[in-house]
Design brief:
Helices cover 65% and strands 7% of the residues. With 721 residues, it is α/β, with parallel strands linked by helices. Among the domains are: 161 residues, Rossmann fold; 72 residues, no CATH class. The longest helix has 42 residues. The N and C termini lie far apart (75 Å).
Length: 721
């Protein structure tokens, strides 16, 4: 049997083990993109067994098929538009009743379903013994027990998918929702069937259910297809809603959910559980949480965990970073020795090797940071961090769900503001959502890490982990204070309650950690080799042209000729010539377009301790923060006055008289807070629906960053630092 074009979808609640199963099935055969028209990540891969090849799509985690968030929209639209041959619904066996709620919705939708009953090991430790065959008979769909993290049941699951896929028929489940709703559903269904543009895509009864659940996307689609039908359905919905409110004090959405859970409960009572667990029993995760999320011990443990993460990252990445720096230095020296003096040589050495190499040199550090964060994420601890920080966030006018947006953006370090901004979509309150997407760029994203690593390594090498912990605290405090300011001025509004699911603790698999680390590190390296390379070449051109006037160049040549003619000692002559070369390089850099911009800003930027070369780097940082490192590397290789410089940017900054720990701290603070990168700004505009908030983010963040940096630098000078 050959099915080269067959597609199956993995779907389920968050924390059900869906992505773990996806990684186990597809391994390295994965592709990442976005769903059409939605900036939600789409992951797909292939599973191969003999002549059978299936495309596996990992749908975003969702609790419902009623579209409240972009993730739910993406998951549902894929099922409707792409019509995969099979939906593998990953269900947490230790939370069976709650997870079957999504299963029932798949069945009502009419898509072919197979249940992967995951986390059977966790269920067993909780005293839950599930009769898999009985569950399959009652639901009428195949059920395969699995343990995704160890790969147990994976082969049987895919064999069942391959065998069941061709014969599965689309037969929607029809539940009764009581006389009132059933009457309305029947009436709406008969109307929808007549509109072929809708009934040809959706099951008519399912569409009617979505209308009663007040699914705005479905309602908008119906209105576009047939405005008359839309008005008729609204009338029916409003009538039944008013009736339920008067007679039962409830709404259609709540009644639909009650009947679905009633259907699930009836299944569970028909011998599905061979042994029901003791509901009063404290499970391992609960016992751990009594310590880790304790009001007093929890925050202290969280601080210790983060400090340990930074200590681990800097300790174990030190040697690989040094090896890579030496390799990049050797590459630059080789290019210098084998290329004739020319603009091309300058581009290759200063623009590409010193520019992009400065960013790539921190790849091992980024890799170890991502590895540590993957451990926290896969173990379930990051969800506890969000839970503990909720109490703090409410004080500053933010929602508990904002915590995950902050963490995704780099709240611990190494994230990205773009998915952080998009993660704010999960907030129902527009005011809290706007406050969140405007403040997540303050987090320490992966683009800022090379800047921090460079400056911490150059000026705070004796306490790198402690300094990174301090930088993290500064970014969080600054973001929360900014959020409070926005919430009491421009974005006033009431706070909304926060409820979240705490997944059970799990021991991460080494394979899963490697996959997550590789994916994130690859994105960093890819960006360095594409976006950063392009910006580095552009900035090199701005730092090269216009060239020095001929009379000035001739003056430097005359000085060199004089040295060669008068200085007889070879070493002394070489040292004197190197100094003249360095002075010429600095003069050329100052004369360039970038140099003029940096020099023009120096009168103001000097208040924060920034010289003209730093200004050039910070201007480039508006495009992407990694450019700060690459531009400093280019600027110091083209215009370094100190002829004794060893070649390392870290050592060049540490030895430069214009730099000090106070200057480095001022630049760190400015980098934390100033304008988001261009991609993030575009994302803010798209998510907020207005260009003014993107412009506000750039202006507000940069002004605040400069004022704080001036306060740090001038205050430090007054205190004698």
């Amino acid at each position: 049997m050959t099915a080269m074009s067959a597609t199956i979808a993995l779907a389920g609640n968050p924390n059900a083990g869906k992505t773990t199963l996806f990684n186990a099935l597809t391994g390295a055969r994965q592709h990442v993109g976005n769903y059409p028209g939605v900036t939600v990540e789409k992951k797909s891969g292939t599973w191969v067994n003999g002549d059978l090849k299936l495309t596996v799509v990992d749908l975003p985690g969702t609790y419902s098929l009623t579209a409240y968030s972009p993730e739910e929209v993406a998951a549902r639209d894929f099922l409707v538009r792409e019509q995969p041959q099979m939906v593998v619904n990953i269900v947490d066996a230790s939370n069976l009743e709650r997870h079957l709620y999504l299963t029932v919705q798949f069945m009502e939708m009419g898509v072919p379903v197979l249940i992967a009953l995951n986390m059977m090991d966790v269920a067993k430790t909780r005293g839950i013994d599930i009769r898999v065959d009985r569950l399959a008979d009652l639901l009428g769909v195949p059920v395969i027990p699995t343990v995704a993290r160890s790969g147990k049941g994976k082969d049987e699951l895919m064999k069942t998918v391959a065998a069941a896929r061709p014969s599965v028929e689309k037969k929607p489940l029809r539940l009764s929702y009581g006389e009132d709703l059933d009457s309305a559903l029947n009436q709406m269904e008969s109307m929808i069937i007549k509109v072929k543009s809708l009934s040809g895509v959706y099951d008519a009864r399912w569409l009617a259910l979505k209308f009663l659940e007040n699914d705005r996307k479905i309602m908008a689609e119906v209105k576009t297809a047939d405005s008359g039908l839309y008005e008729s359905l609204v009338t029916i919905r409003d009538t039944v809603t008013d009736h339920l409110k008067k007679t039962l004090d409830t709404y259609p959405e709540a009644m639909i959910a009650d009947y679905r859970y009633g259907y699930i409960s009836s299944i569970m009572k028909q011998g599905v559980l061979a042994h029901r667990y003791d509901e009063n029993r404290l499970y391992l995760s609960d016992r751990i949480d009594k310590v880790l999320v304790n009001r007093l011990a929890g925050p202290l443990i969280m601080a210790a965990v983060l400090f340990g993460l930074y200590a681990f990252t800097f300790t174990f990445s030190e040697a690989p970073v040094a090896w890579l720096e030496n390799a990049i230095a050797w590459l630059g020296a080789s290019a210098d020795a084998h290329m004739a003096d020319s603009l091309l040589k300058s581009l290759v050495i200063s623009g590409i090797i010193d520019g992009v190499g400065g960013v790539l040199g921190f790849a091992p550090l980024i890799m170890f940071m991502f590895f540590g964060i993957s451990i926290l994420e896969d173990s379930g601890y990051l969800a506890r961090v969000a839970f503990m920080l909720d109490r703090v966030f409410r004080v500053f006018g933010l929602h508990g769900s904002s915590v995950m947006a902050f963490i995704v953006s780099g709240g611990i370090a190494g994230g990205c503001a773009v998915p952080g901004v998009m993660a704010s979509r999960t907030l129902r309150s527009p005011k809290e959502r706007l406050a969140t997407l405007l403040t997540v760029p303050f987090m320490n994203c992966g683009a800022k890490l090379p800047v921090f690593a460079l400056l911490v390594g150059a000026f705070f090498s004796k306490n790198e982990a402690g300094m990174m912990m301090t930088i993290t605290v500064i970014s969080w405090v600054g973001a929360l204070l900014a959020a409070k300011l926005l919430r009491v001025t421009l974005i006033r509004g009431e706070a909304t309650p926060f409820v979240m699911e705490l997944p059970p603790y799990r021991l991460p698999t080494f394979k899963g950690l490697l996959i997550h680390t590789f994916e994130r590190t690859f994105q960093y390296v890819k960006k360095a080799g594409t976006t950063i390379l392009g910006i580095s070449i552009l900035l090199w051109a701005m730092m090269t042209f216009p060239e020095l006037p001929s009379d000035v160049s001739q003056g430097f040549e005359a000085r060199k000729a004089h040295i060669e003619a008068t200085v007889t000692d070879k070493d002394s002559a070489a040292e004197a010539l190197a100094k003249v070369d360095a002075e010429e390089g600095e003069a050329a850099l100052r004369h360039s377009a970038a140099g003029r911009i940096g020099s023009a800003m120096e009168g103001l930027s000097s208040l924060a301790g920034f010289d003209w070369r730093t200004n050039i780097a910070l201007v480039g940082g508006f495009a992407a923060k990694e450019v700060i490192v690459s531009t400093l590397g280019t600027a110091y290789s083209m215009g370094e006055v100190d002829a004794e410089d060893s070649g390392s940017l870290k050592e060049a900054l540490a030895a430069n008289p214009g730099w000090s720990p106070l200057t480095a701290l001022s630049l760190i603070v400015f980098t934390i807070f100033y304008a988001p990168c261009f991609v993030t700004v575009v994302c803010i505009v798209k998510e907020s629906g207005s260009w003014k908030w993107g412009a506000f983010s750039m202006a507000f963040n940069t002004v605040a960053a400069f004022l704080i940096s001036v306060l740090v630098y001038q205050g430090g000078r007054l205190l004698g630092f």
